[in-house]
Structures are given as C-alpha cells and as structure tokens.
Write a structure and sequence with these properties.
elongated, 3 helices, alpha/beta
C-alpha cells in the first residue's frame, strides 16, 4: 500500500517570522539603553566660537594665495621648500584657507613638489556633524 503525503496548506509560517522580529526589537531596545544618559544639569563646552590656529610647522595659504610660515611672509612656495633643511622636505604640511581656489592650491603643491618636497600634506578641519 502506498502512503499519501499529507497535503500542505500552502500557508507560510508567518508566526516564526513575527517571533524573530519581536526578539530583534527587544534586543535593540535593551542594547540601546546600556549607555547611561548625561545628567540633566550638565552642559557641554561649545567650540564653535574658538579661533582656529594653524599648527606651528606648516605653510599657511590665505584666500588670496599669500603664503606665510610661523607668521612671516614667504615669497613663493619654491623658495620656502628650498629654504628648509633636507630632513624637513620629506613631508611639507600646507594649511589652505577655506576660500582658496582649488587651482591655486594645486599650483602651490606642484611648486612644492618641484622644489624637492617628497609629499605635500593638506591640513583640513574635521567636521563632527
């Protein structure tokens, strides 16, 4: 005698899916409350009004393309690079103004490389938003 298989009802097991989604919801609710909240009367420091300063050993480029190093004006990027000791020409850091044209920044970097800089590093501000 041949046994017949019971017919499947054609329904999908949605109860199992609902259980998995519910367990994930509970897990994320618990995991999200592990870090304690800040105290209500605590105010964090605001740094938006602080004046930014360039690191001391960097070539600063203003919005018009003027160069300065440690507050003293520099005639050209090539003269700056040639005036550095050989050991300091490995990586020259440049702090450009936000409004400096990109083409001008590329020109200065190319001039530094042509004068012996192995690498030109652009120093930027990191946004936390």
């Amino acid at each position: 005698m041949i046994r017949r298989r019971p017919r499947s009802s054609g329904r999908e097991p949605t109860i199992a899916l609902i259980n998995v989604v519910f367990l994930m919801l509970v897990f994320f609710m618990v995991a999200g409350t592990i870090a304690p909240p800040l105290e209500g009367d605590l105010s964090l420091i605001r740094t938006a009004e602080l004046e930014g300063r360039a690191p001391p050993d960097t070539l600063v480029v203003d919005a018009a393309g003027g160069l300065s190093y440690r507050g003293a004006a520099v005639a050209s990027a090539a003269a700056f690079a040639r005036g550095l000791p050989e050991a300091e020409r490995g990586a020259i850091r440049v702090v450009p103004d936000r409004d400096l044209a990109a083409a001008e920044l590329v020109r200065i970097a190319t001039e530094l490389r042509g004068a012996g800089a192995e690498r030109v590093l652009i120093v930027t501000e990191r946004g936390l938003e």
